[in-house]
């Protein structure tokens, strides 16, 4: 290499290093601005979280049993938001009574309803799965009681606590039957595998 080649090589190397230094400085500035933005953003607090439940489900790998509202019902119903400040720590006696009565109803009548429906639709359900279905429905009772309680409060025709309780109980019993019927009709003819 002669002197000119070395000069060009050193010049290009210097130019390349200068370019790399500028790129590193730009990346450092960007990193600092992102860190600053992240620190400012992480101080934000969540004031309120709302959950809206449209359907309740009994899930199993081979199917889903939905109880609650059908898509057609959603058009006729207002938005029901659950607000944390309105949820009592201990359920009132009416809710406890309804939950207890509906739980007993479910355990006493659930297996026979499932057997009758599965027999009518030629769908075999073993006792273990019946028990899973009943437990899943039972877990959903408090939220369904609260839903129908709100609905009953908007329906001013109910005059006393007994009518109020009977309305909620009847609605949930109908919902339990309808959801089991829908599940079995959906899986009709499949049987247990």
Automatic annotation (TrEMBL):
Source superkingdom: Bacteria
Keywords: Coiled coil
UniProt-listed Pfam families: GerPC
InterPro entries reported in the protein's UniProt record: Spore_germination_GerPC (IPR019673)
Coiled-coil region: 17-44
Protein name as catalogued: Uncharacterized protein
